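Weekly modeling sync, notes
Attendees: S.R. (lead), two postdocs, one rotation student

Agenda item 3: backlog of single-chain predictions. S.R. asked that every request posted to the team notebook include the full sequence so nobody has to chase files. The rotation student volunteered to paste the first one in as an example of the format we agreed on. Action items at the bottom.

Example entry:
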Amino acid sequence: MSNKEIQKNEFLFGKKNYILMLVGIAVITLGFILMAGGGSDDPEVFNEAIYNFRRIRVAPTLVLIGLAIEIYAIMTKSKK
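Predicted structure, as returned to the notebook:
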């Protein structure tokens, strides 16, 4: 038997890490969805809705929180 046959295939991260990564991706996606919109159909008319609280404060905060979750998910040790 060669070394390749004996070697067991294992995932790089544990189950907890992958679940945290999916949660982080979901939070980032939600942040980008909340950032969307606010455009105007008429290019001559400026729409003030682009500067509302949700698009300026909440959505970027969610994206940053999602990135922090991703970093945490990558850096935590899995129980192997």
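Discussion: group reviewed the output briefly. The CA atoms of residues 45 and 65 lie 34 Å apart.
Action items: rotation student to repeat for the remaining queue; S.R. to check formatting next week.
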